[in-house]
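Chapter review: from sequence to fold.
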Amino acid sequence: MGKGKGVKEYFDGYPKHVFFILGNEFCERFSFYGMKAILVIYMTRRLLIEDSQATAIYHAFNMLCYFTPIFGAILADGYLGKFKTILYISILYAIGNVVMAITALWTNIPGPMIGLVLIGIGTGGIKPCVSAFGGDQFRSDQVNQLTQFFSVFYFSINLGSLISMILTPILRGDVKCFGGDCYPLAFGVPAALMIVAIVLFVVGYRWYTNIPPSGNVMVDMMGAVGRALKNKCGGKFDKKDHWLDYAEDKYDHTFLNDVKAVFRVLLLFLPLPVFWALFDQQGSRWTLQAGTMNGDYGAFKLKPDQIQALNPVLVILLIPVFESVIFPLLTKCKIPHRPLQRMSMGMFLAALSFTITGFVQLGIDNAKPQPIPGGKAEMTFVNAHFNCKMEFRSPVYNGTLDVGQSHAISSIEKAQFNHTVKYGCEGQTKKTKAVQLKETRGNIFTVGQHGQDLQSVVHVQRPKAQEGRGKAAIRVINMVPNDKRIRIKFTIDTGATVEDIINSTYLSASKYVPGEPGRYTMKIRTQDTSADEAVKGSFEPKNGGVYLLVLQPDTSDQNKKMFTSHVLVEANSVAMIWQIPQYIIMTVGEILFSITGLSFAYEQSPASMKSVLQAAWLLTVAFGNAIVLIVAAAGSGGTGNQALEFFIFAIVMAVDLVIYIILGIRFKSYKSPLEDNKEDLSQAPNGVSATDGDLPYEMVDVANKDKIPGHEGLVNRVFDKSLENFDSREVCNL
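The token string follows.
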């Protein structure tokens, strides 16, 4: 907003009904990015889908979202018009969101997959239409208001997506329902926002300007290509200089020259999907990596599906800096100042970010407790007595443990799997127990007291850490002498019940149950009582750790109960903030690559083909996700090593960069008949000055990966050379 200009003055002259469109876009983007933020976490933790398969599904969904805009645009421009296309496809979109929310009530894979297909068709189908429909509402003399509208449109998109990417993980993790994370609520809120988006859009119907469909240039282009191939293969025409010239019997020569210009740019687009293959892994592989890290910062606990909100935050902060400082400085210093050079730098930074990601993964792997190797076992000794120090004598451990203490012995050789343990209170007669350890497992030897007699129990089946699942694994052993069943209830510090564990009588053990990081208290209820009894003690499991809780007599009164906690597998120790450098570098690379690339594609296309090249740009995002889908379907690239996969992607990006540079050197830019004497557009600075090229204005939601000009906002400036003659309906007319 201008200096001294209030909200009312800023929006002065706006058609009032455009605010229904802005509200619609805010709600739709909230819905989409809120759902997408928790998608990988939902698949891996709730549906228990393996990481690589979840990654493949995530990128297949992304690919669908970027393929379907072409069909939505054809439907809007050639058949239904924008309003009906947006309305009908939005209803399909909302149904998909509702399906996601309802099917989250139970573990069910087909239901969410149906929901994702409907959402992918819905968001892609309306993507090319909403902003252009908003532009249709302005009169031809409202140039300034039109420009401001796209700025506000861009802001509403980023505001909706940013709020949802922070809020939805909170609804998922901090609110508990049905004994765990509340996915029905986390998906339900985006579903409700999508319904609100439709209502807002419909309310403005009576005031909208509806322009009837008038055909689609993409259909004409495909027709020309088909006609040229048919005539060339038919052999009925004289030899032509270019294969597209064979369509001259039906299509205008100027139109065919424009198509030729498009194909020259499309050749340059071939290496671009690799960048998006890396970029879009922020929502999949990077989120899964965050799930193996420690996000506990005292009062603030960062969730793995929240850190991806760092990208839109950085974009909003960095774009003004790049537009006002960095781009002018790069142009002045010429390092780099040309569009293809800047795009190359963006690709280089993407490779660098994945190199850093690989080193972060190596740090995670090195800090992670290693699996117990073959031929060895572990054993943990636990003193669950209420008032004596317990002595242990065995071939693997000789020591004394105070009440509630434990001691772990690792790397026990196979020759000592069968041995005898002597144990007893300090200075008293010892009991003897034969133990048989399980290979490659953690064995737990717990001693308590029943009357005057010491009782011991050996439990095995200790699991590995819950790698990548963002959970702790918790098991309870009941060492309280009691003939009745005991119901044990965990409560996290939010006040929500995590899960009930039903223990049988004395010396019994629960199954391992997952628990969110946080501070826990525990209550118990015996079989013949109706009230919960608070039990002394609390513990705070960390992400990825495995814990043993021992319910035992209270040290101050053995008729009461307490519990002690014991760490069996250490929690994830690498801080989640170590991901910040890779996010910063990738975001800077995105700004250099995406903004420059969109501007370049627009400048290098003839006036009749602007929408075609923007559609092609969008398809590079889809094909990039297809690359990740293929790699993920192979299971970590067939390596079984996540760090190696990150390094391989970085290398592939570097090789792809070399190919792109070679193609860029050979590229011949498009020149209209009026521009024959102008400087080669491919050598012009990227969008720094209002005199660079004939782009009316640049619009891109670079923060949220919706790479369609006009649909996702105005990037800080207006190109006014041809603005007076610019038709707003062309903005997103795919």
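Two observations follow directly from the output. The first strand starts at residue 176 and ends at 177. Residues 1-215 form a domain with the Growth Hormone; Chain: A; fold (CATH 1.20.1250.20).
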